[in-house]
Amino acid sequence: MMKQACMLLCLAVCSGAICAEQTDSCAGLEGPGLTQCRSNQQTLQQQERLEQQLQQQQERQNQLDKQQREVQQQQLEVQQQLESMRLQNESLRKQLERQSADQAARPVVTDAKSAAAKSAEIKSWRADNPWYGSDYTRTQFAVRYVKQLQQEHPDLAGRELLDALSAKVDQTFGATH
Questions:
Q1: Model's pTM, two decimal places?
Q2: Which structural domain, as residue segments, surrounds residue 150?
Q3: 50 and 101 part of one domain
Q4: What is the 3-state secondary structure (H, E, C) of the chain?
Q5: Which of 70, 88, 105 is the last residue of a domain?
Q6: pLDDT digits (tens, 9 = 90+) for 155-171
């Protein structure tokens, strides 16, 4: 039995030594050789860590580059939108200038013929609306309402404007005819 125990002990020690040699490449070395081997192992481990760190940094740099490209694309889109808005504003400004110029260019009744025609329209309208000037309430209403009517319907002028005014007075106060 003792023999068996000794054999088992020897097998165990030899197996442990073999395993230790497989996992430790510096096993069996002594002195400066062992020191150099351990130093080389540490250097290799540091290189592996540095390579991993470098790979991680490259991945982060790639992500940053991608984000930067996305931001640049967004900036380009914003610049295009701003330019579009600037052009639209310029177009609207020119349109407003044209409208203002058109309104300013509308002929003002200055010649005698137009003034005479306008005067005839007014006389005709006054004949059809005897309340104007004699009925204070209706007259004041007409004076105030004609301004509102001109704002609401700038296309109305002359007899059309006066007839619309008469219709509103009649609607408000009742017809006098």
A1: 0.37
A2: 114-173
A3: yes
A4: CHHHHHHHHHHHHHHHHHHHHHHCCCCCCCHHHHHHHHHHHHHHHHHHHHHHHHHHHHHHHHHHHHHHHHHHHHHHHHHHHHHHHHHHHHHHHHHHHHHHHHHHHCCCCCCHHHHHHHHHHHHHHHHHCCCCCCCHHHHHHHHHHHHHHHHHCCCCCHHHHHHHHHHHHHHHHCCCC
A5: 105
A6: 988 889 999 989 999 99
